[in-house]
Design a protein that fits this description.
The protein is of the alpha/beta class. It is built from 7 helices and 10 strands. It has 2 domains: 157 residues, Rossmann fold, CATH 3.40.50; 75 residues, no CATH class. Bound molecules: adenosine-5'-triphosphate and magnesium ion. The site of magnesium ion has 2 residues, from helix 1.
Amino acid sequence: MPAATDGTVAVSSLSHTYGAESGEGTLALQDIDFSVAKGRFVSIVGPSGCGKSSLLMMLAGLRHPTSGEILCGGAPVKKPDPERIGVVFQEASLFPWLSARKNVEFPLSLRGVPQKVRTEKALHALELVGLKDFAERLPHELSGGMKQRVSIARGLVQDPQILMMDEPFAALDEQTRFSMGDELLRIWDETHKTILFVTHSLSEALYLSDEVLVMSARPGRIIDRIEVDLPRPRTFEVMSSPRFVELRERIWQQIRH
Ligand SMILES: Nc1ncnc2c1ncn2[C@@H]1O[C@H](COP(=O)(O)OP(=O)(O)OP(=O)(O)O)[C@@H](O)[C@H]1O
Ligand SMILES: [Mg+2]
């Protein structure tokens, strides 16, 4: 398999200063180092403004770090590459005038993929998120959770080995949020993708992940790396287990200030 599709992520000595060119810059990220093995589910948590979204934008090639190196699948990330890295943001940000299927097809149409192939791939991605029967619906005909699933399907449509998600369920109510988490774990199980998941919710991070990276307040640094040794498959009950509570407390102590 070519290196660029193997699903590993490696970040070394990454720092970022916003507005560096104007002299008075804001140091947002400092000396970030971590690596993620293929197929792992890794969450990133930290106080608001610590640079989680900035980090994800850089990992996805949407922004350039001031310094440091990012390798995804062994190759440097210099620009967005949706065949290698799929991205899902907090707001579903769908085109309101396009059906669910057309929204999912959109990145393929940018690449000039023929209509027949586009439709096949979009329907497959929608099936993966359980929305095949809603393919022709417009976004306003879908619930918030369904819209977010369309957005996940769009991130998956080019079958990237790595999926990066920035608070994808933050706009949803708690119940929908946890069922979306279960849905995501099922997709992860079926597709063996590497997932990097930014969230504010410590419980969500622990419930979903193999590993949680904890960031400090700005300038964001990685201050802890927690191996989540809770058995899978995880169910709602795991959240009241002593180990879960202990890990949650450990993270909370580090980010509460
Ligand atoms: N385009 C930008 N220009 C200048 N400063 C920025 C820009 N984007 C983010 N910042 C600053 O960088 C820091 C990190 O922001 P970022 O959005 O990455 O944090 P975050 O951890 O995702 O926050 P939240 O949890 O609230 O989403 C903040 O201080 C923010 O003000
Ligand atoms: Mg953010």
